[in-house]
Amino acid sequence: MKVKIIISNLSVLTKKYSAEISTIKQSLAALITADELKGITSEIIYLDNETQMQSLSIIAVKDAQDEKQNKDAITAIITKMTPASVTLVGGSDIIPFQTLTNPMATDGDDNVPSDLPYACCVPYSQSITNFLKPDIAITRLPDIVKATKANALLNAIEVATTAKPKDKKYYDNYLAISAEVWQGSTSETVSHIFGEPDKLHYCPPNNNDWNKAQLSASCHFINCHGADHDQNWYGQQGIDYPVALSVEKLANHTSEYAIVAAECCYGAQLYSLDDQSGLCNHYMENKASTFCGSTNIAYGPASGQGQADYITQYYINALRAGNSLGDSMLIARQEFIHQSSPLTPADLKTIAQFVCYGDASNTPILADKTMLKAKSFDPSATNIAYYTSGKSMSLAQVIKDEISVMTQQLGITPDVSTGQVNVVQQSTSAKSVLLKTRPHNFHSVLYTNVNKSHALGNTSNIVLHLLEENGKLMSKKVLYSKG
Question: How much is the pTM?
Answer without folding.
Answer: 0.83
